[in-house]
Amino acid sequence: MSSDRSIAFVASGQIPPSAPPANLTGPIGWVRENLFDGILNSILTLASIAIIVMVVPPIIDWAFLKGVWNAGSLGECREIVVATHGEGASGACWAVIHERIYQFLFGFYPPELYWRPILAFMLLFVAIAPVLFSSAPRQMLWFSLAYPLIAFFLIWGGSIWGTLLFLAGPVVGYLVGFRAGRFAYGDNFIVGAAVTVLATVLWWLFAVTPIADALTSTIGFVGFEPVESDRLGGFLLSITIGVIGISGSLPIGIVLALGRQSSMFAIKTMCVVFIEFIRGVPLITLLFVASVLLNYFLPPGTSFDLVLRVVIMVTLFASAYMAEVIRGGLAALPSGQYEAADALGLNYWQATRLIIMPQALKVAIPGIVSNFIGLFKDTTLVSVIGLLDPVGLLNPIRADSAWNGILWELYMFVALFFWVFCFSMSRYSMYLEKKLKTDR
Amino acid sequence: MSDPLMADDHMPEDHPVDLSKMHVSDEVAIQINNMNKWYGEFHVLRDINLTVNRGERIVICGPSGSGKSTLIRCINRLEEHQKGDIIVNDVELNSDLKNIDKIRAEVGMVFQHFNLFPHLTILENCTLAPIWVRKTPKKEAEADAMLLLERVKIPEQAHKFPGQLSGGQQQRVAIARSLCMKPRIMLFDEPTSALDPEMIKEVLDTMIGLAEEGMTMLVVTHEMGFARQVANRVIFMDEGQIVEENEPEEFFHNPKSERTKLFLSQILGH
């Protein structure tokens, strides 16, 4: 080392912070960094702009500028387009949506009763608000709990007796299993629980209908005018199946995921068999089972509503997938979390509810919401077994001589409807992930 | 440096502590008789016999894999033992879940990696177990927690999340969280091993404060300065058994077993 160079160095003071160079910040900085950052990026940006310019204007022209909103048939639509825009022009014929909008919304629900599903739909938002947003008042959760019953009653109507007796099922089961049965087998919890479940199911199958009939004939009919399930259709049907499936599959999925992790062999095996069976079978098969086969297994004389059967199948199908997504979330938790909860003296259910599940569900949010979205779109499969959901309605509409030959507008409309719902769910999931981020 | 024990020492210089002669009660807190544990075929703990009196501060050291962590994790049954007895606060540890939860509520544990609950604030971390296990009213639990957070010198962080704190702060929260359950025994499983050197001191300070109050402590650590000044007994473990135990002065200056001598020369020698 030369003598005039020394390795010793002492900073003469603290360097004050200064602003970054101007071309790194602001809109110009953003454009430079994101759109024209290098040759490849610039080419891609220009190509994208070119594609947008080529594709978007014709679509807008077809759908909106030359679209026809009022006409009685496809032929009339075409005449209007030609008359206003000249020979050879083509435009969308939204008139079909305009004319059939009520069918799309409600299927064949009696028009004078439309207010009932509309009210149920509006109340849905009141019911999910406290679940989705922690800022909503907690007391609203009581309404959320009661909502399924209210919605069922609004949509299907019918006598209040049947619903009340159905709800009484678990109560009756409990009384039989844990009160009356005491004399037979004492305090055995497992036997008590089994008898409870059995008594509840028997009550539903054999007691509800006769007692409801008896009450109606003695006290009288109390309730709404009943609407048969085969009159439900359109978006009403999609949303009904979707909402029940979504709200049912999450809790069932949680139970299955916990069961699969259980150290009790019987519980673990049951959960694994259920999950692997359901995941190994296409939903369509299960829907056919629901629509055709299930009747063979039920006691003769019990009529089990088709929509109800479909809802149960869709829910079970989704919960098997849900269980695996949640299991992924559980697996992502370090074992230290379980140990810390144990070391503090929390029992299994406290640890699961307060420590494990909140974190596992948070990790699993993207997967859970993906499943919700998938489930909601899968509701269109019920058209295969003859239910008239929006996709199931398309064939009858296209078979109508007035609209024979129309295709794009119908599918675009249905697609738009599903997109709005699925996109909202996706955005909500992003909001939730951001809100629950606690590490910075 | 004349005393080899002072090498790599994080003990506070400003107030010299020597608690090794502090009074120990005659009451037995933990009694372990002929305890054995296996992981499958592997015999991790072999014929462990240990009696801990109330107020004792015991440091357990030994090479990695010697079973020292497993031993203290058996005391609150994070690990199950297969043979022998463990009696904690006069309650025997067996498969009875009620006993296990009772003991866990009275035995605090601090982990190497803190294991704070990342989805809860510092205050919620501290009040969770008192509220749910002890059924303390929320207001009261929060007041208690704030006092303890003040004692570990981080009350101003109460409403932050664990991810926003430094390692040393997180470990002090973990200690406060355990103390919120008002435990009679504290177990420390390498509490400073995951910390940067400058943060080790703040955690050791907190532990010394605890020792000064007469807490019964079992500490698995490599901090030999802490062992010398705070412990009243040092236990050396190797290959699943207790090889040597003695008062710190004797243990460090006059080890009897060859394995202890080798171990001490490796960690203190440099």
Q: Topology of this protein?
A:
The complex is a heterodimer of chains A (440) and B (270).
Chain A: H1 26-34, H2 39-65, H3 74-85, H4 95-106, H5 115-132, H6 140-156, E1 158-159, H7 160-180, H8 182-185, H9 189-218, E2 223-224, H10 234-261, H11 265-279, H12 283-297, H13 306-331, H14 335-343, H15 348-378, H16 390-399, H17 408-435
Antiparallel strand pairs in A: 1-2
Helix pairs in contact in A: 4-10, 5-6, 7-9, 10-11, 10-13, 10-15, 10-16, 11-13, 12-13, 13-15, 14-15, 15-17
Chain B: E1 28-39, E2 42-53, E3 57-61, H1 68-75, E4 83-88, E5 91-92, H2 97-106, E6 107-110, H3 122-132, H4 138-151, H5 167-179, E7 185-189, H6 197-212, E8 216-220, H7 224-230, E9 233-238, E10 241-246, H8 248-253, H9 258-268
Parallel strand pairs in B: 3-8, 3-9, 6-7, 7-8
Antiparallel strand pairs in B: 1-2, 1-4, 4-5, 9-10
Helix pairs in contact in B: 3-4, 3-5, 4-5, 5-6
Task: Outline the structure in words.
- The complex is a heterodimer of chains A (440) and B (270).
- By secondary structure, chain A is an all-alpha fold.
- Chain A folds into 3 domains: 22-97, no CATH class; 99-157 and 229-435, MetI-like (MetI-like fold, Orthogonal Bundle); 158-224, no CATH class.
- Helices cover 71% and strands 1% of the residues of chain A.
- Chain A contains 17 helices and 2 strands.
- Chain A has a two-stranded antiparallel sheet.
- In chain A, helix 7 (160-180) runs antiparallel to helix 9, helix 10 (234-261) packs antiparallel against helix 15 and helix 12 packs across helix 13.
- The longest helix of chain A is centred in the last third of the chain and has 31 residues, at 348-378.
- The model of chain A has no long low-confidence stretch (mean pLDDT 87).
- Helices cover 36% and strands 23% of the residues of chain B.
- In chain B, the strands form 2 sheets. In chain B, strands 6-7-8-3-9-10 form a 6-stranded mixed β-sheet, with helices on both faces. Chain B has a 4-stranded antiparallel β-sheet with strand order 2-1-4-5, with helices on one face.
- In chain B, a hairpin with a 2-residue loop joins strand 4 and strand 5.
- The longest helix of chain B has 16 residues, at 197-212.
- Chain B starts with 27 loop residues before the first strand and ends with a helix.
- The model of chain B is unreliable at 1-7 (pLDDT under 50).
- The A-B interface holds A 334, 336-337, 339-347, 350, 354-355, 358-359, 362, 436, 438-440 and B 76, 78, 97, 101-102, 104-105, 107-109, 111, 113, 115-119, 128-129, 132-133, 161-164, 177-178, 181.
